[in-house]
Amino acid sequence: MKFNKKKINVVDIQKAKKSVFATGIGNAMEWFDFALYSYLAVIISKNFFSPVQNDELKLIFTFATFAIAFLLRPVGGIIFGKVGDKFGRKIVLTITILMMALSTLIIGVLPTYDQIGVWAPILLLLARILQGFSVGGEYAGAMVYIAESSPDNKRIRLGSGLEIGTLSGYIVASVLVTVLFWTLSDVQMNSWGWRIPFFLSIPIGLFGLYLRSHLDESPIFENDISENQEQQPGLLEVIKTYKKDIFLCIVFVAFFNITNYLLLGYMPSYLDENLGISDNISTPVTAIVLIIMVPFALTFGKLGDKLGNKKVITIGLVLGIVFSIISFQFLNMGSLIFLFIGLLMLGIVLSVYEGTMPGSLPTLFHTDIRYRTLSWTFNLSVSIFGGTTPLVASWLTHVTRNNLAPGFYLLAVSLIGLIVVLTLFKDTSGKSLKGSYPTVASKAEFQEAVENPKDSLWWKMEQTEKE
Q1: Does the pTM exceed 0.90?
Q2: Cα distances (Å, whole numbers) of residue 144 to 35, 76, 373, 374
Q3: Angstrom distance (rounded) from CA 50 to CA 60
Q4: Residue ranges making up the domain that contains 283
Q5: Would residue 287 count as lying in a domain?
Q6: Distance in angstroms (rounded) separating the CA atoms of residues 370 and 407
Q7: Is the pLDDT of residue 259 over 90?
């Protein structure tokens, strides 16, 4: 086997850690906006769907607006993914954070239905569509950038840092909304108080823009793609050649995001509308759970590098099966301590995925098609499964009149995920990214890669089998 040691990617671990922080800011921005929409869904429904008499239907319309916007994510993924593979990962990450900040601000300044009639929900939908389009290139780009900038043996743990951005954005939103609920009256909150958090998107966005503008391009893009773009396979060819990897990605993203949106998107409204637990109580309890999730996610990321991502993801799915029904039973017991335990159970399951997925999903695809394929595949799955989770959960609860219905939904998804992971997924922790030479951060790692060419280019055997 020919092995050119000059193609080994050597990275600075400190720079890799800085890139995690810079990309994590964008993720924090995305989830700050998402958390605001989730926590304030009841108030938003009253302001933008006031003619609807049934409060439950108002909430469903609000979540429907939320879900429809997700349909633009695959479009954004296709466009930004193609740009990212052609011109670099950095330029896309710079554009998307500006678009996310703008769309979040727009929601905060929109007139209500009582002020401009039917144009209010239409403009709300357009703002969510802009958000969905920009996020289509954001998260996949961040995952790819971190994976390509990290040493192979630390890729999972550094990738988990991206999800710390998710939790941080959500925690900041939780704390801010809690303070507003505690300091403002219901009338003030419904009238103008709910707008205040959306204005913070501008300073967060500008800070993220500053950090990203000072990033270097990923070493793998510079070494493997930037000067070798003559023959890029088309979409149909990619689907035909990598159908197994695409299927795996869709399933991974499905169980990850259904768990994610069930806890972080649907839960505030579920507790309020179905259990009568006010935001004044549920929001701070959720914030505490999110804070606890941070060390859990980092720990599972380290375990992913040490034990292998397949084993750790399997642990998460088993926990999802065990905790799915029990957690919702605890939530329905009417006690503060049981509320905390139920949310924490779901939080631990989500922590497993947050610790492993950002560093695992980019390993499914080859370097020359990684960004665009991961981008549209990820966003297609998020749109179908993640974005619809609050809507599906609301509908299941409404139709069955069973408050445990969302738990059964999570149970079914976790079972399917476990079967797929055990039968189709091969561990990728510590291995070079498909289509590229190893990425190392020390002389010892460099020498090991040179001395073990077959292990370093393990993906060539898989590529040969496909051909």
Answers
A1: no
A2: 24, 16, 11, 8
A3: 13
A4: 14-214+233-436
A5: yes
A6: 34
A7: yes
